[in-house]
Design a protein that fits this description.
By secondary structure, this protein is an alpha/beta fold. The protein has helices at 2-31, 53-68, 86-95, 124-131, 134-147, 187-195, 208-214, 224-229, 255-260, 263-297, 307-316, 319-326, 332-343, and strands spanning 40-45, 73-78, 100-102, 149-156, 161-165, 180-183, 199-202, 219-223, 238-240, 248-254, 301-303. The protein has two domains: 40-157 and 248-287, D-Maltodextrin-Binding Protein, domain 2 (3-Layer(aba) Sandwich), CATH 3.40.190; 161-246 and 297-343, D-Maltodextrin-Binding Protein, domain 2, CATH 3.40.190. Strands 2-1-3-10-4 form a five-stranded mixed beta sheet, with helices on both faces. A four-stranded mixed beta sheet has the order 8-5-9-11. It has a two-stranded parallel ribbon with strand order 6-7.
Length: 345
């Protein structure tokens, strides 16, 4: 009899717990406005190390998206080139094996290269105005339609880009003659370095440190944040601060995956991406000074051209604008639109 009573007691307790658990779940579901929208995983790749603004700002994106979707969208980030080169990652996004990718990869979206014309912008305000312009919106929509991706944000890939090499200081365009300068294969970089008289040498970003160390390339161009986070100052001696170019950082998302999302989640992800972009650019501005100082502390020699010397660099590469028009990267009207945006800011 006692055994029967004990069994009945256990059953009553179990039923009570089960009923309570069900009640708690019902309450939780009632509090979750997205309970019926399903669950999604968003895997994002990029090429930068953990201390880079891209990595840090993506951490914010992860937290914001998961919090605002009540955990229904889980974000996984794979940085430092774990999933391949930027081109390989973008290919994965296009075919759908990866949901998202951030990086200055323009092989499939060459019209975005118009933002990388040499000496187009010189201040943060000008860069922000360009990336938030109606022209930027049109280009992002155009790029998405052509490649099966959606570009949900454009921010700064790392700040203004500088030159460095191991041979001698670069104080004038003629100093590039005979230098093997690394290029990522971006046509505006290739055209700029060629116009300055350098020999261009393609090297993937992940292999650049070793290429500089072994002499495969004499020099490179990158923003201070990249130079610092990748420790290029360990294998480069001479730096020239010219702020010659900035790169947009598109946030590419697979179109089919994006269209599978409920509209509520699309809205949240876009908002989080916009806030991430603003945070990213703030980090770039904050970290450029300390990144530059890291080069100085490591013994790097930084040359800052005078206004006249800087103009000589600008004059040497002025033909790149017409070359890009001739290749269809932009029209003369779009160049005028870009220049008007810069002039107004």
């Amino acid at each position: 009899m006692k055994k029967v009573l004990s069994v009945l007691l256990v059953l009553l307790v179990s039923l009570s717990v089960f009923a309570g658990g069900g009640k708690e779940k019902a309450v939780a579901d009632a509090d979750d406005q997205f309970a019926g929208l399903g669950n999604y995983v968003m895997m994002i790749g990029h090429s930068q190390p953990a201390d880079n603004p891209r990595s840090i700002s993506l951490e914010k994106f992860v937290q914001d998206v998961e919090e605002r979707t009540n955990g229904h969208v889980t974000v996984q980030v794979f940085g430092n080139g774990q999933l391949g080169t930027e081109k390989e990652m973008l290919e994965q996004v296009i075919i759908g094996t990866l949901q998202g990718m951030r990086g200055g990869q323009f092989d499939f979206t060459p019209r975005l290269l118009m933002f990388t014309l040499p000496f187009l912008a010189q201040t943060r305000e000008q860069v922000t105005a360009l990336l938030h312009s109606d022209l930027a919106v049109r280009l992002s929509e155009e790029a998405g339609k052509e490649n099966g991706v959606v570009i949900i944000n454009l921010c700064d890939a790392g700040g203004f880009r500088q030159f460095s090499n191991n041979k001698h200081p670069i104080t004038k365009p003629e100093d590039f003659k005979g230098l093997k300068m690394r290029t990522a294969g971006m046509t505006t970089i290739d055209k700029t370095l060629t116009a300055l008289g350098a020999t261009i040498t393609p090297v993937p970003y992940s292999d650049l440190y070793m290429a500089l160390r072994t002499g495969v390339a004499d020099g490179q161009e990158n923003p201070w944040t990249n130079v610092s986070s990748m420790k290029f100052y360990e294998v480069q001696k001479y730096f020239t601060e010219v702020n010659y170019q900035f790169h947009p950082d598109p946030f590419y998302v697979n179109e089919a995956w994006w269209n599978s999302l409920p509209e509520e989640f699309q809205t949240i992800i876009r908002e989080c991406a916009s806030e991430m972009g603003t945070y990213n650019d703030q980090l770039v501005d904050e970290l450029q000074s300390s990144a530059r100082q890291a080069v100085v502390d490591a013994g790097g020699d930084i040359y800052v051209p005078t206004a006249d010397e800087l103009q000589a660099f600008k004059d040497a590469v002025s033909g790149v604008y017409q070359q890009c028009i001739d290749e269809g990267i932009l029209t003369a009207e779009e160049l005028a639109e870009l220049q008007a945006i810069v002039a107004a800011n």
